[in-house]
Design brief:
A four-stranded antiparallel β-sheet has the order 2-3-1-4. It has one domain (6-106): 2-Layer Sandwich (Alpha-Beta Plaits). It is globular and about 50 Å long. By secondary structure, the chain is α+β, with helices and mostly antiparallel strands. It has three helices and four strands. A hairpin with a 4-residue loop joins strand 2 and strand 3. It has helices spanning 23-37, 54-69, 90-106; strands spanning 6-15, 41-43, 48-53, 75-85. It is 45% helix and 28% strand.
Length: 107
C-alpha cells in the first residue's frame, strides 16, 4: 500500500476506567487535536471522521489517544477506515452522492 493514498478514518476515542473528570472533557481534548491538525474533519455524537493520507490520519489518531491519556490510565479506541487512493474531498463527496441518490428515489 502506498502511504500517500487518501483515506477517511472514523474513530471514537475515550477514557476507560478514568477516575478524573468527565468523559466529555477527555473527548474534547481529543477533538481539539483533530481540529488543530488542519485535516478536513467532522464530529458527530458517535465518531470523529478525518480525511488525509495514511500517515497524516494515523498521526492525528495517535495524538488524540495521547491527549485522552491525560484523563486516565486506559484508553478505548474504535477505528474504521475507507482507503480510496488518489481522490480527495470524500468527506463531503460521499454525502453528496448519498443525497443525490435519495433525491432520485423521491422522483
Amino acid at each position: 500500500m502506498r502511504h500517500t493514498e487518501h483515506m477517511l478514518v472514523a474513530f471514537s476515542v475515550s477514557t476507560a476506567g478514568s477516575d478524573e473528570g468527565y468523559v466529555h472533557e477527555a473527548v474534547a481534548a481529543a477533538v481539539r487535536v483533530v481540529r488543530d491538525s488542519g485535516l478536513p474533519n467532522h464530529t458527530d455524537a458517535m465518531f470523529t471522521t478525518i480525511e488525509g493520507t495514511w500517515d497524516q490520519c494515523m498521526a492525528v489518531v495517535k495524538e488524540a489517544v495521547e491527549a485522552i491519556r491525560e484523563y486516565g490510565p486506559r484508553v478505548s479506541l474504535v477505528l474504521k477506515a475507507d482507503i480510496f487512493g488518489d481522490r480527495t474531498g470524500e468527506l463531503a463527496g460521499k454525502l453528496e452522492r448519498l443525497e443525490t441518490a435519495l433525491e432520485q428515489l423521491e422522483v
